[in-house]
Amino acid sequence: WKDKGITRVIIESPLLQSNNVNTVGTLLLCLLASIVVCVIIGILTERFAYRPLRKKKSTRINALITAIGVSYILNGLLNAINNKQMELPKFFSTDVAFIISLAVTAILLVALTLFVKKTKLGIAMRAVSENESAAKLMGINDNFIISLTFIIGSALAAIGVIIYLIRSPFFKHTIGSEVIGLYPFVAAVVGGIGSLPGAVIGGFLIGILQEITAVLGVGEWVQVIIYGIFVVILLFKPAGLLGKDIREKV
Fold first, then answer.
1. Over the range 43-59, which residues count as b (16 or more CB within 10 Å of their CB) and which as e?
2. pLDDT tens column, 29-54
3. Average pLDDT estimate for 18-28
4. What backbone phi and psi angles, to 5 degrees, belong to 87?
């Protein structure tokens, strides 16, 4: 092997140099820690905030208000602990980070779509979402399925924020409210509630609008434009770009 130069090629490979190995290891450690913390918060939120509401047969608007309340509680808690700007290590160049963002988004979209459409747990999630009472009559443990949904959503949120931070490493704990804000919700509505590809398309549209307004020098108008489109979509196509109108017979 040494005669063929294979050993030299492996040792000098840029992917296996010590600095790169340390970089990837640090990134994976950050990702793992983020997923664990977010999943724990998601489980606790579902268990102590949402489950009591379901037991009392509360309306969905109550659940929405509770979600807003929990977000402000977490925001206030973190603000009391540390409200300074922090910096994540610079792992990759901007171009590499962009490619990674696209690749991870595509992989997660395909994996999540297959999970929801093809697996028993995914079908159970869809059943609980469609009609929780009927799903319980069919033997589905609704509490477990909803908890699993929170776990998956929390893990995806952790992955999403790490992807965001490898491009913009400076952040505060208020990144979700001040920087990103309600954009994910707007993206889901624009793309179509219940459509995973639609949510991704909505997210890309918002990102493109942000870049366009920045290039044109009207970045201060970006929220007006995005939320204006949000209102227009609700008025003229409430189901979103890829969503479907659901009609019920009475």
1. eebbeeebeeeeeeeee
2. 888 999 999 999 999 999 998 898 88
3. 66
4. -135, 130
Separation of alpha carbons 164 and 34, rounded Å: 13
Mean pLDDT of 218-240: 84
Distance of alpha carbon 53 from the chain centroid: 24
Task: Answer whether 0.90 is exceeded by the pTM.
Answer: no
Q: Angle 148-152-154 (CA atoms, 0-180°, nearest 5)?
A: 115
For 166-195, letters b (16+ CB in 10 Å) and e give: beeeebbbebbeeeeeebbebbbbbbbbbb
For the chain, percent of residues with pLDDT exceeding 70: 86
What is the Cα Rg of the chain in Å? 21
